[in-house]
C-alpha cells in the first residue's frame, strides 16, 4: 500500500472537479483527481448533459430535413432508430473525453481511477479490483461526485422496461410507447426527444404545470408544442404503483389513472452521489437526498474539505458546477481577488424548441409589486427565422417601466440557449449599463436572430410611450 501526498485532492472529474483541478494546477499546486469510472468526465459527459443534448440535436437535424420542401421526398425515406442515433452520440463523448484527458496531462494533474473513501480529514483510500487499495493524503479536498437518478425502493430498476435517465441511454431498440414520470427539465427533454422519434409519449407531471420555475407564457408554449408533437401530458398526478410484465409496464397513479406503455422512464428527482465516501469518518452528514451541506463559499463543516456541483444541490447545472469548482480552487490557492459567483444563472432546457431564461419571471415581479413592462419579438416575424424555417418561438424582455433596467430574459425557440447570452451581457452591467435602450439604439447584423433584441426593445418602449 502506497501513500502519496498532494496539495489538493479532488474526488470526481465532472465539471465541478475539472474546474477546481484546472484552477489549482494553474496556481502551481500539486493536484490529483480521483475518478471511479474508467474515463473522465463524470455524469455530465457520459449519462447526462452531453448524451441527451447530442441526441436532441441529431433528431432535430432529421426533423428539419423532413420539413424542408427542397428535400422532403428524400428526407422522408430516412429511418431513425435509437441505437443508431446513440452511436453518433458516442462519437461526441469520445471527443469530449479525449479533450479532457489532454487537458489533465498538459496541466500535470494526476488522474487516479478507483473508488475513494475517507479515512480521516487528510487521508483517503482508493480501491480498484485490479490494484487493490492505495492511500493518498492531501492538505485540502474537493468533493465533486455529482448526482445520480433518484431510485425509489418501490421500483425494480433491474427490470428491462423500467428505466432512469442513466439506463435509458442503453436502450437496444426504439420503443413504440413510453411513459415518463416526472416533468422537470430531464423529463421534458426526453419527452421531446422520443416523441420526435415517433414514440407515443405519456408525460406524467407531479405538479400543476411544466417547469414552474420558468415564465408562465414560455411553459404554456412548451406544453402546446409538446402536445402538437404527440405527447400526452397529465398534471397533478402522484405515483401509486407499477405493474410490469413481458409485454409492457403500467404506471398506476393515486388518481386512479393508468398509463400503459412499452417502457417507463422514471425522471423524478436526483440524489447526491455520496454513498461509499465514508463521510461520517470526517464528521460530514449528507441530507436525505445525499447532498452535502455547504456555506456560500462551498465549505463543509470540515475546514479543509469543500464540495461543489450537483452533490451540493441546486442549481445542479454543468455550467454553474464548473464555476463553483474554479471558485473553490481560487480560495484554496489563496487567490485574493474579489471574484464572487453570479446569482442570476441562465437556464437552458433542451426541448424542441428549446428554452432559456435569466432573471425574474412575470409572476415574481407581480408578487414583488415591481412596475415592469414586456418587450416581445416573435420569431415568425424575423427574417432569419423565416429563412431557416425555425419560426416557432419568441424573445421576451421584462424591464422596469421607470429605469428601463432589464429584469428578465425569456426565450423559446431554436437557439434559445445561445440567444439568451446576448441579453445576459447587458443585464449584468453596473452603473446604469443595464438599460433597454442599448438594444433599441444598437445596430445588429441583418438578417440575424440577434435582431430579436432590437424588435423586443422597440416593442417594449412603444408600450410605455
Description of the structure:
The chain is built from 13 helices and 22 strands. It has helices at residues 15-26, 42-46, 49-67, 72-75, 82-106, 185-195, 216-228, 318-332, 362-367, 383-388, 416-427, 437-440, 451-464, and strands spanning 3-11, 31-35, 110-113, 115-120, 123-128, 132-143, 147-149, 162-164, 177-181, 200-204, 232-234, 239-245, 248-253, 258-261, 263-266, 270-272, 305-307, 347-349, 355-359, 372-378, 393-400, 406-413. The protein is globular, with a radius of gyration of 24 Å. The chain starts with a strand and ends with a helix. With 465 residues, the protein is an alpha/beta fold. The strands form 5 sheets. Strands 1, 2, 3, 4, 5, 6 and 17 form a 7-stranded mixed sheet that branches. Strands 8-15-9-10-11 form a 5-stranded parallel sheet. Helix 1 packs parallel to helix 8, helix 3 packs across helix 5 and helix 3 packs parallel to helix 6. The longest helix has 25 residues, at 82-106. The model has no long low-confidence stretch (mean pLDDT 94).
Strand content: 25-35%
List low-pLDDT spans.
none
Average residue pLDDT: 94
Distance between the termini: 76 Å
Compact overview of the structure:
31% of the residues lie in helices and 26% in strands.
